[in-house]
Amino acid sequence: MLYADKAALANRARLRMLQIRERELNLYIANSRVIATKSTLLCGIAYSALLYVKMDYYQGAHWFTRHVYPVALVILLGFSLLALMNFSLIAMLGPGLALRGPDGSVAIALDAIAIEYRTASFFFAIAIVSVHAVVITYAFGKVARRTSAAVTISVILTMLSVYSLHLLYHHAMLIGERFRIDEVHTGAFTGPSDARPDSDSSQGARERRADGAAATLLASETRQPTRGGDSAR
What we know:
Layout: H1 2-49, H2 56-59, H3 63-100, H4 105-139, H5 148-178, H6 203-232
């Protein structure tokens, strides 16, 4: 009977910890789905822009546009597809590992998601920069006419693209600084054993070591009123 009560108490502690980690998992999945949708939009833009190379007026464009424009489009399409694939796989496989995996798979899934999330975000950032590179190469297409109007339009489009890229970087840094977190807190329980160095210091290992500590802590807190009542008597 006592063993069953202790096991039930430990299971309740583990369940509460998993509920906290589930919120962290849902945050990653929701963000991955949003950015995957934006990556799909960039893929559509890049694929549609490839039709421009089939037009007759493209053949009379400046050599810079005729050679660099397709390269910029391929870079845009490639990194957009990479971001789309990575974020889609995170949203599909991450919850599957956390739900169907063995004991401790929630922490393993979150560790893997955090790594792949940063990689996919880098791919998405490169895709955004590639959009501006495509616009700049397109702007030089009219320079072949060597008229003042064509040169002026090309310079204006180039300056607007560079300024837009500068604004994106500036506001990304500004928003990142405003929402910067000095010390990131995860849903993993941090017990006293995590303060000392250990050969296995991954977040998943820390959570697995902390499960027993959390159950012990909860059990001791539950027994405290009883000990107080016994000492009073």
